[in-house]
Design a protein that fits this description.
single chain; 232 residues; mainly alpha; two-stranded antiparallel ribbon; 8 helices; 74% helix; elongated
């Protein structure tokens, strides 16, 4: 990641790779170029932010119904957009290591809620997923803010960069949710051709349990890894 700051306060951020080893330094990047750069950074961050994706995946598995998924994802979006803006603009300052550890813990908690719901004992997250998504979304917003802080913001266009980074995150997040729901619908349709309805539901519940254990195990590893960094 290359960040160029001009004496006039303009900032240009570019990402280099083995296949893209050079770029043109603009005298003053246009608003459109700035918007496109931060939109791409937002999409890239969510696609490579596996902890955030696992949290969203766990919510989708828990909720299932696309209407409730829409409400839940909207609540998550509003929450993390709020804390992302507050932290980026300097209104709130939260140390990053505890935030990252707590994000891992939030994924574990939703995984447990999946197991409880499929076991016939739905918890608060299953009953009010939007409320839990909003609460944890506030926390995840600090994680997004930490990633944005590493990239930096152009001092002459902070609102534009912040807005389009957030839009990039939302674009990536919605694309991921749509892909998960589409894959789930196709899988259910394929099973309907061979299995009875009762057996389909049983199979889906078993798969949800397996997914919950897999997600929870990864999150537990992250929690231990991130917590241990406190003492290094």
């Amino acid at each position: 990641m290359v960040r160029i700051e001009s004496l006039a306060g303009a900032t240009q951020t570019e990402r280099l790779s083995p296949t893209k080893t050079a770029f043109i330094i603009q005298a003053v990047p246009s608003v459109g170029e700035m918007a496109a750069t931060y939109l791409g950074l937002g999409v890239e961050h969510i696609f490579f932010g596996f902890d955030h994706l696992l949290f969203v995946l766990a919510l989708v598995i828990l909720v299932r119904d696309w209407r409730r998924v829409a409400v839940t994802v909207t609540a998550f979006t509003i929450a993390h957009s709020t804390t992302l803006a507050a932290a980026t603009l300097g209104f709130v300052n939260v140390p990053r290591p505890p935030v990252e550890a707590t994000i891992a813990l939030s994924i574990m908690l939703v995984s447990v809620e999946i197991l409880n719901a499929r076991g016939g004992k739905p918890g608060l997250t299953a009953r009010l997923p939007w409320l839990v998504a909003f609460s944890f979304g506030l926390l995840h917003g600090f994680g997004f803010a930490g990633a944005l802080a590493e990239v930096g913001l152009p001092q002459h266009a902070i609102p534009v960069a912040l807005l389009f980074f957030n839009l990039g995150v939302e674009t990536g997040q919605l694309a991921f949710v749509a892909a998960v729901l589409t894959a789930g619908g196709l899988f259910r349709t394929a099973m309907a051709l061979r299995l009875e309805p009762a057996l389909i539901q049983h199979t889906l519940n078993r798969l949800d349990v397996i997914a919950a254990y897999a997600i929870g195990t990864v999150a537990a590893f992250w929690l231990i890894e991130r917590t241990s960094s406190f003492f290094v």
